[in-house]
Amino acid sequence: MSMTTQPPPPNKWISWLSQIYSSGNGPVLGTVDVQEIEDKAREVMKDNSIAYQYTSKSAGTCSTDDANRKAFERWKLVPRMLNNVTLRSIETTILGMKMCSPIFIGPVGKQGLVHVDGELATARAAATVGVPLIVSSSSSRSLEDIAKANGPNGQRWYQFYWPRSSDIALSILKRAKENGYTALVITVDTMIIGWRSHDHCIGYSPAGHGFGVQQGMADPVFMKRHGLAPRHERPKFPFNQENIRKKAAAGDEETKQSMFLASQWLAETGSGIFRTWEDLQFVKDNWDGPILLKGIQAVNDAEKAIDMGIDGIVVSNHGGRQIDGALGSLDALDMIMRSQKVLDAQKSGKLTVLFDSGIRTGSDIIKALAIGAQGVLIARPIVYGLAIAGQAGVEQILMQSICDLHVTMGLCGYSDVNDLIGKRDELLVKVEYGIGTRALVKSLM
Fold first, then answer.
1. How far is Cα 33 from Cα 27, in angstroms, rounded to an integer?
2. Is residue 435 pLDDT above 70, yes or no?
3. In this structure, what are the phi and psi dihedrals at residue 397, rounded to the nearest 5 degrees?
4. Which residues, in sequence order, are CB contacts of 259 under 8 Å at separation 6+?
5. DSSP string spanning 185-196?
6. Do β-strands 103-105 and 375-378 pair in parallel, antiparallel, or remain unpaired?
7. What average pLDDT does range 77-83 have in this prediction?
8. What's the predicted TM-score (pTM) here?
9. How many angstroms separate the CA atoms of 330 and 72, rounded?
10. Set 115, 226, 232, 318: catalytic member
Protein backbone atom coordinates (compact mmCIF):
# COMPACT_ATOMS: atom_id res chain seq x y z
CA MET A 1 0.00 0.00 0.00
CA SER A 2 1.39 3.40 -1.00
CA MET A 3 1.94 5.87 1.84
CA THR A 4 2.21 8.86 -0.49
CA THR A 5 -0.37 11.49 0.43
CA GLN A 6 -1.30 14.94 -0.82
CA PRO A 7 -0.94 18.00 1.41
CA PRO A 8 -4.14 19.90 2.19
CA PRO A 9 -5.03 22.81 -0.10
CA PRO A 10 -4.36 26.28 1.34
CA ASN A 11 -7.15 28.02 3.20
CA LYS A 12 -7.69 31.60 4.26
CA TRP A 13 -6.78 31.04 7.90
CA ILE A 14 -3.58 29.04 7.56
CA SER A 15 -2.50 31.30 4.69
CA TRP A 16 -2.76 34.25 7.06
CA LEU A 17 -0.40 32.54 9.49
CA SER A 18 1.98 31.55 6.69
CA GLN A 19 2.09 35.15 5.53
CA ILE A 20 3.43 36.25 8.92
CA TYR A 21 6.40 33.93 8.47
CA SER A 22 7.00 34.61 4.78
CA SER A 23 6.89 38.39 5.23
CA GLY A 24 9.33 38.39 8.11
CA ASN A 25 7.50 41.40 9.54
CA GLY A 26 5.28 39.83 12.15
CA PRO A 27 1.58 40.65 12.69
CA VAL A 28 0.08 44.14 12.68
CA LEU A 29 -0.20 44.22 16.47
CA GLY A 30 3.39 43.11 16.89
CA THR A 31 2.34 39.94 18.71
CA VAL A 32 -0.42 37.35 18.83
CA ASP A 33 -0.08 36.86 22.60
CA VAL A 34 -3.38 38.06 24.06
CA GLN A 35 -1.83 39.35 27.29
CA GLU A 36 0.84 41.26 25.38
CA ILE A 37 -1.88 42.77 23.19
CA GLU A 38 -3.77 43.94 26.27
CA ASP A 39 -0.57 45.39 27.72
CA LYS A 40 0.19 47.14 24.45
CA ALA A 41 -3.30 48.65 24.36
CA ARG A 42 -2.74 49.98 27.86
CA GLU A 43 0.52 51.55 26.73
CA VAL A 44 -1.03 53.08 23.61
CA MET A 45 -3.75 54.63 25.77
CA LYS A 46 -1.46 55.81 28.58
CA ASP A 47 -2.44 59.43 27.89
CA ASN A 48 -6.09 58.40 28.07
CA SER A 49 -5.81 55.84 30.87
CA ILE A 50 -9.26 56.60 32.27
CA ALA A 51 -10.86 55.46 29.02
CA TYR A 52 -8.70 52.33 29.00
CA GLN A 53 -9.78 51.45 32.53
CA TYR A 54 -13.42 52.07 31.63
CA THR A 55 -13.03 49.38 28.97
CA SER A 56 -10.87 46.91 30.88
CA LYS A 57 -12.27 47.04 34.42
CA SER A 58 -15.25 45.14 35.79
CA ALA A 59 -17.72 45.37 38.68
CA GLY A 60 -16.47 45.79 42.24
CA THR A 61 -13.22 43.95 42.89
CA CYS A 62 -13.26 42.45 39.36
CA SER A 63 -13.64 39.00 40.93
CA THR A 64 -16.20 37.89 38.35
CA ASP A 65 -13.88 38.81 35.51
CA ASP A 66 -11.20 36.74 37.26
CA ALA A 67 -13.68 33.89 37.69
CA ASN A 68 -14.29 33.89 33.95
CA ARG A 69 -10.66 33.15 33.23
CA LYS A 70 -10.25 30.71 36.11
CA ALA A 71 -13.21 28.72 34.82
CA PHE A 72 -11.40 28.20 31.52
CA GLU A 73 -8.23 27.22 33.33
CA ARG A 74 -10.02 24.45 35.23
CA TRP A 75 -11.23 22.72 32.07
CA LYS A 76 -8.45 20.88 30.21
CA LEU A 77 -8.50 19.49 26.69
CA VAL A 78 -7.85 15.78 26.11
CA PRO A 79 -6.70 15.50 22.47
CA ARG A 80 -7.30 12.39 20.36
CA MET A 81 -4.52 11.18 18.08
CA LEU A 82 -4.18 9.44 14.66
CA ASN A 83 -7.45 10.75 13.28
CA ASN A 84 -7.49 11.88 9.65
CA VAL A 85 -8.18 15.57 10.17
CA THR A 86 -6.01 16.84 7.32
CA LEU A 87 -9.01 18.61 5.80
CA ARG A 88 -10.86 20.68 8.39
CA SER A 89 -13.92 22.90 8.34
CA ILE A 90 -14.84 25.54 10.90
CA GLU A 91 -17.92 26.71 9.00
CA THR A 92 -21.24 26.55 10.78
CA THR A 93 -24.84 27.76 10.56
CA ILE A 94 -26.47 29.65 13.42
CA LEU A 95 -30.12 30.72 13.28
CA GLY A 96 -30.11 30.16 9.54
CA MET A 97 -27.01 32.31 9.02
CA LYS A 98 -24.05 30.61 7.34
CA MET A 99 -20.83 31.60 9.06
CA CYS A 100 -17.16 31.11 8.25
CA SER A 101 -16.55 30.22 11.92
CA PRO A 102 -18.54 30.08 15.17
CA ILE A 103 -17.20 33.50 16.20
CA PHE A 104 -19.16 36.74 16.64
CA ILE A 105 -17.91 40.19 17.55
CA GLY A 106 -19.70 40.85 20.83
CA PRO A 107 -21.51 44.12 21.53
CA VAL A 108 -19.15 46.68 23.06
CA GLY A 109 -20.32 50.23 23.61
CA LYS A 110 -18.44 53.50 23.25
CA GLN A 111 -15.66 52.14 21.05
CA GLY A 112 -14.88 55.72 20.08
CA LEU A 113 -13.21 56.04 23.48
CA VAL A 114 -10.26 53.99 22.25
CA HIS A 115 -9.95 54.94 18.56
CA VAL A 116 -11.01 57.85 16.39
CA ASP A 117 -12.96 55.58 13.99
CA GLY A 118 -14.72 53.71 16.80
CA GLU A 119 -17.37 51.21 15.74
CA LEU A 120 -16.93 52.04 12.06
CA ALA A 121 -13.48 50.45 12.05
CA THR A 122 -14.82 47.36 13.82
CA ALA A 123 -17.72 47.08 11.37
CA ARG A 124 -15.36 47.26 8.39
CA ALA A 125 -13.06 44.65 9.94
CA ALA A 126 -16.01 42.32 10.54
CA ALA A 127 -17.04 42.58 6.90
CA THR A 128 -13.48 42.10 5.63
CA VAL A 129 -12.92 38.92 7.64
CA GLY A 130 -16.52 37.70 7.26
CA VAL A 131 -17.46 37.57 10.94
CA PRO A 132 -20.93 38.58 12.20
CA LEU A 133 -21.10 41.81 14.18
CA ILE A 134 -23.38 42.47 17.15
CA VAL A 135 -23.81 46.23 17.50
CA SER A 136 -24.25 47.81 20.92
CA SER A 137 -27.10 50.15 21.82
CA SER A 138 -24.48 52.34 23.50
CA SER A 139 -22.29 52.68 20.42
CA SER A 140 -20.61 55.99 19.71
CA ARG A 141 -21.91 55.88 16.14
CA SER A 142 -25.48 55.49 14.90
CA LEU A 143 -26.71 52.05 13.88
CA GLU A 144 -27.21 53.45 10.37
CA ASP A 145 -23.59 54.59 10.02
CA ILE A 146 -22.33 51.29 11.42
CA ALA A 147 -24.49 49.38 8.93
CA LYS A 148 -23.02 51.42 6.05
CA ALA A 149 -19.50 50.66 7.27
CA ASN A 150 -20.38 46.97 7.58
CA GLY A 151 -21.61 46.98 4.01
CA PRO A 152 -24.45 45.26 2.13
CA ASN A 153 -22.89 41.81 2.62
CA GLY A 154 -22.00 42.21 6.28
CA GLN A 155 -23.74 39.98 8.81
CA ARG A 156 -25.03 42.03 11.72
CA TRP A 157 -27.31 41.76 14.73
CA TYR A 158 -28.49 44.52 17.05
CA GLN A 159 -28.08 44.50 20.83
CA PHE A 160 -31.10 46.10 22.47
CA TYR A 161 -31.13 48.16 25.65
CA TRP A 162 -34.86 48.52 26.19
CA PRO A 163 -36.09 52.15 26.20
CA ARG A 164 -38.73 53.16 28.74
CA SER A 165 -41.10 54.58 26.12
CA SER A 166 -42.83 52.19 23.73
CA ASP A 167 -42.77 54.61 20.80
CA ILE A 168 -39.00 54.98 21.06
CA ALA A 169 -38.53 51.23 21.45
CA LEU A 170 -40.56 50.66 18.30
CA SER A 171 -38.53 53.29 16.46
CA ILE A 172 -35.25 51.57 17.38
CA LEU A 173 -36.59 48.19 16.25
CA LYS A 174 -37.78 49.70 12.97
CA ARG A 175 -34.44 51.37 12.29
CA ALA A 176 -32.52 48.18 13.04
CA LYS A 177 -34.67 46.10 10.70
CA GLU A 178 -34.47 48.69 7.90
CA ASN A 179 -30.67 48.72 8.16
CA GLY A 180 -30.08 45.02 7.77
CA TYR A 181 -29.83 43.84 11.36
CA THR A 182 -31.27 40.34 11.13
CA ALA A 183 -31.47 39.30 14.80
CA LEU A 184 -32.18 41.11 18.04
CA VAL A 185 -30.08 40.49 21.16
CA ILE A 186 -31.86 41.74 24.27
CA THR A 187 -29.41 42.32 27.11
CA VAL A 188 -31.25 41.26 30.26
CA ASP A 189 -28.49 41.68 32.86
CA THR A 190 -28.18 45.47 32.63
CA MET A 191 -31.48 46.96 33.74
CA ILE A 192 -29.23 49.21 35.83
CA ILE A 193 -25.45 49.63 35.63
CA GLY A 194 -23.48 47.45 38.02
CA TRP A 195 -21.31 48.65 40.90
CA ARG A 196 -18.29 49.84 38.94
CA SER A 197 -16.04 51.25 41.61
CA HIS A 198 -13.37 52.44 39.18
CA ASP A 199 -15.91 54.81 37.60
CA HIS A 200 -17.56 55.79 40.88
CA CYS A 201 -14.24 56.95 42.34
CA ILE A 202 -13.86 59.68 39.71
CA GLY A 203 -17.44 60.23 38.53
CA TYR A 204 -16.53 59.04 35.03
CA SER A 205 -19.60 58.97 32.78
CA PRO A 206 -19.04 59.28 29.03
CA ALA A 207 -22.74 58.72 28.34
CA GLY A 208 -23.73 61.51 30.69
CA HIS A 209 -21.53 63.80 28.64
CA GLY A 210 -22.89 62.86 25.24
CA PHE A 211 -20.62 59.93 24.39
CA GLY A 212 -22.27 56.58 23.66
CA VAL A 213 -25.78 57.98 23.26
CA GLN A 214 -25.57 58.29 19.50
CA GLN A 215 -28.43 55.84 18.86
CA GLY A 216 -30.68 58.31 20.62
CA MET A 217 -29.34 61.33 18.77
CA ALA A 218 -30.12 59.58 15.47
CA ASP A 219 -33.58 58.47 16.48
CA PRO A 220 -36.38 60.50 14.82
CA VAL A 221 -38.98 59.80 17.51
CA PHE A 222 -36.69 60.74 20.39
CA MET A 223 -35.35 63.87 18.69
CA LYS A 224 -38.81 65.03 17.57
CA ARG A 225 -39.83 64.95 21.21
CA HIS A 226 -37.25 67.69 21.76
CA GLY A 227 -38.07 69.63 18.62
CA LEU A 228 -34.94 68.53 16.79
CA ALA A 229 -34.04 66.56 13.67
CA PRO A 230 -32.10 63.31 14.05
CA ARG A 231 -28.34 63.61 13.63
CA HIS A 232 -25.60 61.07 13.07
CA GLU A 233 -22.84 62.22 15.37
CA ARG A 234 -19.17 61.32 15.49
CA PRO A 235 -18.04 62.43 18.94
CA LYS A 236 -14.67 64.08 19.31
CA PHE A 237 -11.67 61.84 19.99
CA PRO A 238 -10.15 61.62 22.51
CA PHE A 239 -13.07 62.03 24.87
CA ASN A 240 -12.31 64.57 27.60
CA GLN A 241 -15.01 64.75 30.25
CA GLU A 242 -13.43 67.64 32.14
CA ASN A 243 -13.26 69.84 29.05
CA ILE A 244 -16.91 69.14 28.29
CA ARG A 245 -17.90 70.10 31.82
CA LYS A 246 -15.90 73.31 31.61
CA LYS A 247 -17.52 74.29 28.32
CA ALA A 248 -20.97 73.65 29.73
CA ALA A 249 -20.18 75.67 32.86
CA ALA A 250 -18.96 78.53 30.67
CA GLY A 251 -22.34 78.60 28.95
CA ASP A 252 -21.53 76.90 25.64
CA GLU A 253 -25.03 76.26 24.27
CA GLU A 254 -24.09 73.34 21.99
CA THR A 255 -22.40 71.51 24.86
CA LYS A 256 -25.28 72.22 27.22
CA GLN A 257 -27.77 70.88 24.69
CA SER A 258 -25.66 67.77 24.11
CA MET A 259 -25.53 67.02 27.83
CA PHE A 260 -29.25 67.65 28.21
CA LEU A 261 -30.14 65.30 25.36
CA ALA A 262 -27.76 62.72 26.79
CA SER A 263 -29.55 62.90 30.15
CA GLN A 264 -32.91 62.44 28.44
CA TRP A 265 -31.68 59.45 26.44
CA LEU A 266 -30.25 57.86 29.59
CA ALA A 267 -33.64 58.40 31.23
CA GLU A 268 -35.00 56.19 28.43
CA THR A 269 -32.42 53.40 28.31
CA GLY A 270 -31.20 53.54 31.91
CA SER A 271 -34.43 54.36 33.69
CA GLY A 272 -34.04 51.71 36.38
CA ILE A 273 -37.09 49.79 35.16
CA PHE A 274 -36.56 46.05 35.48
CA ARG A 275 -38.33 44.31 32.61
CA THR A 276 -40.03 40.96 33.19
CA TRP A 277 -40.58 37.75 31.27
CA GLU A 278 -44.09 38.96 30.45
CA ASP A 279 -42.67 42.13 28.88
CA LEU A 280 -40.84 40.08 26.26
CA GLN A 281 -44.10 39.59 24.40
CA PHE A 282 -43.95 43.26 23.33
CA VAL A 283 -40.68 42.66 21.50
CA LYS A 284 -41.88 39.36 20.05
CA ASP A 285 -44.93 41.15 18.65
CA ASN A 286 -42.84 43.90 17.09
CA TRP A 287 -39.66 42.25 15.82
CA ASP A 288 -39.60 40.14 12.67
CA GLY A 289 -36.61 37.88 13.17
CA PRO A 290 -34.75 35.80 15.77
CA ILE A 291 -34.62 37.07 19.35
CA LEU A 292 -31.87 36.13 21.80
CA LEU A 293 -31.51 36.93 25.50
CA LYS A 294 -27.99 37.94 26.52
CA GLY A 295 -26.99 37.61 30.16
CA ILE A 296 -28.55 34.23 31.02
CA GLN A 297 -26.63 32.46 33.80
CA ALA A 298 -29.19 30.28 35.60
CA VAL A 299 -30.67 26.99 34.42
CA ASN A 300 -34.20 28.11 35.30
CA ASP A 301 -33.84 31.23 33.18
CA ALA A 302 -32.62 29.20 30.21
CA GLU A 303 -35.63 26.94 30.58
CA LYS A 304 -37.99 29.93 30.87
CA ALA A 305 -36.58 31.27 27.60
CA ILE A 306 -37.63 28.02 25.95
CA ASP A 307 -41.13 28.32 27.42
CA MET A 308 -41.37 31.88 26.08
CA GLY A 309 -40.46 30.76 22.58
CA ILE A 310 -37.21 32.75 22.58
CA ASP A 311 -34.92 31.69 19.73
CA GLY A 312 -31.63 31.78 21.59
CA ILE A 313 -29.67 32.67 24.70
CA VAL A 314 -26.22 34.11 25.23
CA VAL A 315 -24.74 32.68 28.41
CA SER A 316 -22.88 35.70 29.72
CA ASN A 317 -22.07 37.73 32.82
CA HIS A 318 -21.27 40.86 30.80
CA GLY A 319 -17.56 40.22 31.08
CA GLY A 320 -17.87 40.55 34.84
CA ARG A 321 -19.02 44.17 34.52
CA GLN A 322 -22.38 43.82 36.27
CA ILE A 323 -22.15 41.68 39.41
CA ASP A 324 -19.07 41.25 41.58
CA GLY A 325 -18.70 37.80 43.09
CA ALA A 326 -20.71 35.97 40.42
CA LEU A 327 -19.81 32.60 38.95
CA GLY A 328 -17.62 32.32 35.89
CA SER A 329 -19.58 32.33 32.65
CA LEU A 330 -18.17 28.96 31.56
CA ASP A 331 -19.37 27.47 34.86
CA ALA A 332 -22.83 28.87 34.11
CA LEU A 333 -22.72 27.30 30.65
CA ASP A 334 -21.76 23.96 32.18
CA MET A 335 -24.76 24.07 34.52
CA ILE A 336 -27.19 25.15 31.82
CA MET A 337 -26.02 22.49 29.39
CA ARG A 338 -26.78 19.75 31.92
CA SER A 339 -30.50 20.59 31.69
CA GLN A 340 -32.28 17.95 29.65
CA LYS A 341 -34.87 20.53 28.66
CA VAL A 342 -32.16 22.79 27.23
CA LEU A 343 -30.43 19.89 25.49
CA ASP A 344 -33.68 18.74 23.90
CA ALA A 345 -34.57 22.26 22.75
CA GLN A 346 -31.12 22.74 21.28
CA LYS A 347 -31.22 19.40 19.49
CA SER A 348 -34.64 20.13 17.99
CA GLY A 349 -33.57 23.58 16.81
CA LYS A 350 -35.90 25.43 19.18
CA LEU A 351 -33.04 27.03 21.13
CA THR A 352 -29.65 28.31 20.03
CA VAL A 353 -27.00 28.61 22.75
CA LEU A 354 -24.16 31.12 22.42
CA PHE A 355 -21.41 31.93 24.92
CA ASP A 356 -19.79 35.19 26.04
CA SER A 357 -17.34 36.38 28.73
CA GLY A 358 -13.73 35.29 28.89
CA ILE A 359 -12.90 34.04 25.37
CA ARG A 360 -9.27 34.76 24.53
CA THR A 361 -7.89 31.83 22.50
CA GLY A 362 -8.79 29.04 20.12
CA SER A 363 -8.63 26.58 23.00
CA ASP A 364 -11.17 28.71 24.89
CA ILE A 365 -13.52 28.50 21.92
CA ILE A 366 -13.17 24.73 21.75
CA LYS A 367 -13.89 24.41 25.48
CA ALA A 368 -17.06 26.51 25.21
CA LEU A 369 -18.27 24.50 22.21
CA ALA A 370 -17.50 21.19 23.89
CA ILE A 371 -19.57 22.21 26.90
CA GLY A 372 -22.45 22.97 24.56
CA ALA A 373 -22.29 26.43 23.00
CA GLN A 374 -22.89 26.68 19.25
CA GLY A 375 -21.00 29.95 18.90
CA VAL A 376 -18.97 32.43 20.95
CA LEU A 377 -18.68 36.18 21.31
CA ILE A 378 -15.31 37.96 21.51
CA ALA A 379 -15.34 41.43 23.03
CA ARG A 380 -12.45 42.94 25.03
CA PRO A 381 -9.67 41.64 22.72
CA ILE A 382 -11.50 43.37 19.86
CA VAL A 383 -11.29 46.66 21.74
CA TYR A 384 -7.58 46.17 22.45
CA GLY A 385 -6.88 45.50 18.78
CA LEU A 386 -8.93 48.57 17.85
CA ALA A 387 -7.04 50.79 20.30
CA ILE A 388 -3.66 49.75 18.91
CA ALA A 389 -4.25 49.66 15.16
CA GLY A 390 -7.84 50.51 14.30
CA GLN A 391 -9.49 48.34 11.65
CA ALA A 392 -6.31 46.38 10.97
CA GLY A 393 -6.00 45.59 14.68
CA VAL A 394 -9.53 44.23 14.84
CA GLU A 395 -8.90 42.18 11.72
CA GLN A 396 -5.85 40.60 13.36
CA ILE A 397 -7.79 39.67 16.51
CA LEU A 398 -10.40 37.94 14.36
CA MET A 399 -7.88 36.22 12.10
CA GLN A 400 -5.69 34.95 14.91
CA SER A 401 -8.70 33.69 16.86
CA ILE A 402 -10.05 31.78 13.86
CA CYS A 403 -6.63 30.46 12.85
CA ASP A 404 -5.92 29.33 16.43
CA LEU A 405 -9.28 27.54 16.46
CA HIS A 406 -8.55 25.88 13.11
CA VAL A 407 -5.11 24.64 14.20
CA THR A 408 -6.06 23.56 17.72
CA MET A 409 -9.20 21.76 16.57
CA GLY A 410 -7.08 19.62 14.29
CA LEU A 411 -4.55 18.90 17.02
CA CYS A 412 -7.44 17.77 19.25
CA GLY A 413 -8.42 15.26 16.58
CA TYR A 414 -11.50 16.89 15.03
CA SER A 415 -12.13 17.85 11.42
CA ASP A 416 -15.47 19.68 11.72
CA VAL A 417 -16.20 22.39 14.25
CA ASN A 418 -19.80 21.23 14.55
CA ASP A 419 -18.58 17.89 15.87
CA LEU A 420 -17.13 19.66 18.92
CA ILE A 421 -20.50 20.86 20.20
CA GLY A 422 -21.57 19.05 23.35
CA LYS A 423 -18.50 16.78 23.51
CA ARG A 424 -17.69 17.72 27.11
CA ASP A 425 -17.29 14.16 28.34
CA GLU A 426 -15.18 13.14 25.36
CA LEU A 427 -12.90 16.16 25.05
CA LEU A 428 -12.60 17.78 28.48
CA VAL A 429 -11.66 17.01 32.04
CA LYS A 430 -12.07 19.39 34.95
CA VAL A 431 -8.91 19.75 37.00
CA GLU A 432 -8.19 21.62 40.24
CA TYR A 433 -4.42 21.94 40.28
CA GLY A 434 -2.83 21.92 43.70
CA ILE A 435 -5.31 19.52 45.33
CA GLY A 436 -4.14 16.10 44.32
CA THR A 437 -4.17 16.69 40.59
CA ARG A 438 -3.08 13.23 39.51
CA ALA A 439 -5.78 11.50 41.53
CA LEU A 440 -8.45 13.92 40.32
CA VAL A 441 -7.53 13.57 36.63
CA LYS A 442 -7.52 9.78 36.97
CA SER A 443 -10.97 9.83 38.54
CA LEU A 444 -12.35 11.87 35.68
CA MET A 445 -10.98 9.73 32.84
1. 11
2. no
3. -60, -45
4. 208, 209, 210, 244, 248
5. EEE-S-SS----
6. parallel
7. 97
8. 0.95
9. 7
10. 318
